[in-house]
Specification:
Helix content of chain A: over 70%
Mean pLDDT of chain A: 90
Order of helices and strands of chain C: EEEHEEHEHHHEHEHEEHHH
CATH superfamily of chain C: P-loop containing nucleotide triphosphate hydrolases
Chains: A mainly alpha (about 260), B alpha/beta (about 160), C alpha/beta (about 270)
Number of helices of chain C: 10
Oligomer: heterotrimer
Largest sheet of chain A: none
Structural class of chain C: alpha/beta
Number of domains of chain C: 1
Number of domains of chain A: 1
Radius of gyration of chain C: 20 Å
Shape of chain A: elongated
Low-confidence stretches of chain A: none
Order of helices and strands of chain A: HHHHHHHHHH
Shape of chain C: globular
Chain lengths: ~260, ~160, ~270
Amino acid sequence: MLDAVRSVGRRTIDGIWRMGVAVRFFGLTLVHSGICLRRPQLVMREIFSAGVLSLIIIVVSGLFVGMVLGLQGYETLQTYGSEEALGVLVALSLVRELGPVVAALLFASRAGSAITAEIGLMKATEQIAAMEMMAVDPIARVVAPRFWGAVISMPLLAAMFSAMGIFGGYLVGVVLIGVDDGSFWSQMQAAVDFRQDILNGVIKSVVFGVAVTVIALFEGYDAPPTAEGVSRATTRTVVTSSLAILALDFVLTAFMFRGV
Amino acid sequence: MERTTLDLWVGLFVLAGLGALVFLAMKVGNIGSFDAGKTYAVTARFDNVGGLKVRAPVKSAGVVVGRVGEIRFSPKNYEAVVVLNINSAYKFPTDSSASIMTSGLLGEQYVALEAGAEEKMLVQGDTLKITQGAVVLENLIGQFLYGKTGDASKPTTPAK
Amino acid sequence: MHDNLVEIRGLHFGYGARPVLKGIDLTARRGQVIAIMGNSGCGKTTLFRVIGGVVHPTQGSVLVDGTEMVGLDQDGLYSLRRRMGMLFQFGALFTDMSVFDNVAFQLREHTDLPESMIRDLVLMKLNAVGLRGAQDLMPSELSGGMARRVALARAIALDPMLILYDEPFAGLDPISLGVTGNLIRRLTDTLGLTSIVVTHDVQESLKMVDYVYFISEGMVVAQGTPAEIKASDLPYVHQFVHGEEDGPVPFQYPAESYAADLGLSHA
């Protein structure tokens, strides 16, 4: 019994300690970000590996999510005889919630895990240590460009996800089922507000991008330099960042859309 | 990877992302239809705004000319005070009238502006004198029932 | 100019409560190749981490080119490390870069040289290790011995004063082993470097080094020139040089008596 309580206590302390280390790591990353302005080429490479390589999964998933929304939304809306509101339903669900959240979840499992595995392996094969011995700060050279590359990519990917999703909803709703083209768009435009909906969605995706990237970088940098350590760190990145995305989403939504 | 290829891909990616954002802003959101450009604010008092929301469109002859900027309650004379932000490109006579309408039977509510005949034009801070509140469905039904029972002599406000 | 490039006095170090180094004294003179030998787990690699300033000793002093490493801040440490090269056990090449970019890495990070000059310097270094033709290969396409040589070219890219080699001979076939050994000697002599080699390959290293330290259980147990070592009749050195199974370094990990472990003590 006492042991169980003690183990809860130890886990809590360990967790808080790790969180503190992660926050300090995040701070160090920001402090050492100057290199990204001096050598934008480093960030470009990371935008390529985090953003461009995630493009296919984001675009295809967005299209399918939008198509499903179109089908399901139509089924529900037609019972109330307001099929023209399909555009509003698809657009608001995507722009406010599904776009940022699902894109961030996909990003965590595609780019986040890759970042963790790459940095973990660099550590396991002593590449990080070699860099330090060459008087190159690995936080500045390895971590900071990956951070900015991923943080820049995330909102762009979320926007593409939403846009593809709305296109998917349009395909199913207007082209396939035959909802009126004009009212699909005009009702959508009347209901979706730029600041309230779109800008808040973008803010969400930026916050998710920062959270996923910091978790992925920290897990990689903190991983024990063994094959097992790296594989466990990769799993932890996906699990932790998914939880973080959903929890942050609740907090942000509560702040943004309260009382509207 | 060759540097030029990498640059090309990243460039395409960023452009596609920004394009998606612009698509969302212009085609999905309402930033394209209005918002840009200067506006002037005029106030209108209504006895009842019904379900009117902030940012609802202000239309004249069916064309969006502005948006509802603010809705508040005036405790002095128990009226709703609605601030309308109207695009500076459109000038309306001072005796124009505002009424709250519904697009379709259950659609969203908007403010309809009907131009008057005065030569002076509305400017920032003016108040519209002639207004017509929202038609509340329950009142309409009640009116219909009373009208049936013969109490037709009583003049009703929202008759149009 | 200090005659001794590296001077270590009374060095103690431990991971947590477990002491790894217990009072090491070691000197490396300029232009020499020093070998540090000992059986696996004796603290050789830890000694390197202390010289490179990666970990801080609990006690003692480490002088590199007259500068005390202990208590140095990051800037001081980094400026000193720029004049040191280190060869990691398996090369530790950057796997996302080509051979050329690996060797050019420090030049690009620490200097503002134009790309044409970087190219000349890199090709010179690659030529010195005989791998100029491999400049466009990726590290995954290299054999173990080639990777080690590329790492050596990378370590000498900035013309350091000191190179640390962490087990440069581990896992190499006899030909690559001889090539690597000769390369270390030749580079040390032609570039005027000082080299410290951690190894347990006695035969190869005795052929090329100037001075040998034997470390056992965190202490220097024997030292001398290769000739002295070969002639030494210290039991530890004898066991090490001739690779005998049992001796001062026991075959058995310290344990209770075998009989007690098998539950035979009552019999």
